[in-house]
Write a structure and sequence with these properties.
This protein is α/β, with parallel strands linked by helices. It has helices spanning about 15-30, 40-60, 110-125, 130-140, 145-150, 155-165, 220-230, 250-255, 265-275, 280-290, 295-310, 315-330, 335-345, 345-360, 370-385, 395-405; strands at about 70-80, 85-95, 170-185, 190-200, 205-215, 235-240, 260-265. About 45% of the residues lie in helices and about 15% in strands. The longest helix has 22 residues, at about 40-60.
Length: about 400
């Protein structure tokens, strides 16, 4: 606490000789320079308070005479730095117009090094409790959850800018899927859907184009997501890979009419097996594999008819689903084996989801949407560091795509 005797005025000159004597005595006594009770902490405190005094004097000197502003004592707050913690006396003015620059009103940490260390630990998926423990071990100081939250909040404008960044005009392949997260909303823990778009750019490198949040997954929300991608510069998508959400394909073609849609075959298989009793699933799968593993579209359609003849009466719902979705399930048959392996499932984006969950697993529920966005963004940036090289066989895939989509995709 600040001594009440100092609430009216405070000396603005530092007695460096006195500090020098105390500093040398401390060195001889073996006291540390930084950390808790470090010798540099008092000097930092004095320098800052002197600078704040100078700022207030300059502010009062430049105030219009009609305001008749003057000093109004001090406020105290705990400052945390890499060299220790201390109580900082910040001078106030009567009119409340003084806005300090060197240490802003709500600022409680001082060094950029400390902020960067906290952000680095946060981006690796550490909880606030773990971050506080690490900082204590590194610097010998305690950092509250509120302070850590305030530092990580600096990411919010960065995230907003990143989510609205311009995109390439053409993406050969994109994957669209949602993942479920728990977050608090009006005091209740609810399930939210995080919509993610993974794109493969013209150089064959994967990148997350954006993420969005909603209360549930639906084609109508995806329509808004796709329109946002278009507003950010995407003019054409060659192939879009999606799950079996009803109306998804229509939403895509409404925004990108020329895009070919490939529904995830694995999702379709899982959906089919729901209708098949467990003791017959192995035999059913053996016959079904002849459909989706066929060498050509004609052979796949022939085998689908055989599947219907054998199982249609017993499991009509399972077979009907394949017929209803066939136009979007069979898109991959147009292409070579390399492209087929890449697009016939949504494994690429599901793999991304698994990596994100490694970072979010410490959170049973996020306190709000911003907390979710902050951690997902950090996870995304860490994952992007691994996505620096083109996908396997990209040169061959790109060459084949340029032929299949002549005039829409040109090799660089």
């Amino acid at each position: 606490m600040i001594n009440k005797k100092n609430l009216v005025s405070k000396k603005s000159n530092i007695n460096f000789e006195s500090f020098k004597e105390e500093f040398l005595s401390g060195i001889k006594a073996g006291k540390p320079l930084s950390g808790k009770d470090g010798l540099l902490t008092p000097l930092i405190k004095e320098l800052l308070e002197t600078a704040l005094e100078g700022e207030l004097e300059s502010h009062l000197d430049n105030e219009p005479e009609e305001i008749a502003n003057r000093r109004n004592g001090y406020t105290s707050k705990t400052m945390t730095t890499a060299d220790g913690s201390f109580e900082l006396a910040t001078p106030r003015d009567r009119a409340g117009t003084f806005e300090p620059v060197i240490v802003k009103k709500r600022q409680t940490t001082l060094t950029e090094e400390l902020d960067q260390k906290i952000l680095s630990l946060y981006s690796l998926g550490n909880s606030y409790q773990d971050i506080s423990k690490h900082i204590t071990e590194l610097y010998g100081i305690e950092v509250s959850s509120a302070t850590i939250s305030g530092i990580t909040d600096k990411l919010i404008p960065v995230i907003s800018e990143w989510r609205s960044r311009p995109l390439e005009k053409v993406y050969p392949i994109i994957f669209l899927d949602g993942m479920y997260c728990k977050a608090r909303d009006n005091g209740k823990v609810v399930t939210k859907v995080l919509y993610n778009i993974l794109g493969v750019n013209s150089e064959g490198v994967k990148e997350i184009l954006g993420f969005y949040i909603a209360d549930s997954e639906g084609a109508n929300f995806w329509l808004g997501v796709l329109n946002d991608l278009k507003h950010r510069g995407i003019e054409d998508v060659l192939i879009a890979c999606v799950d079996g959400l009803v109306g998804f394909a229509d939403a895509i073609t409404a925004v990108f009419p020329k895009t070919e849609v490939q529904m995830c075959v694995v999702h379709q298989i899982r959906n089919s097996l729901k209708y098949v009793v467990s003791k017959e699933q192995k035999e059913f799968m053996s016959d079904l594999k002849l459909v989706y593993k066929a060498a050509t579209l004609d052979l796949a359609e022939t085998n689908l008819l055989k599947l219907e003849e054998k199982w249609g009466k017993r499991y009509p719902a399972a077979i009907k689903s394949w017929h209803n979705n066939w136009s979007n399930l069979s898109t991959y048959f147009k292409y070579s084996e390399d492209i087929r392996r890449l697009i016939y499932t949504t494994n690429a984006i599901e793999g991304y989801h698994r990596q994100v969950r490694k970072y979010t697993k410490t959170k049973a529920a996020f306190s709000n949407e911003n907390a979710l966005f902050k951690l997902v963004y950090c996870a995304c940036q860490q994952i992007h560091k691994k996505w620096t090289k083109p996908m396997a066989n990209w040169a061959l895939i790109a060459s084949q795509l340029s032929i299949s989509f002549e005039g829409r995709f040109n090799l660089i």
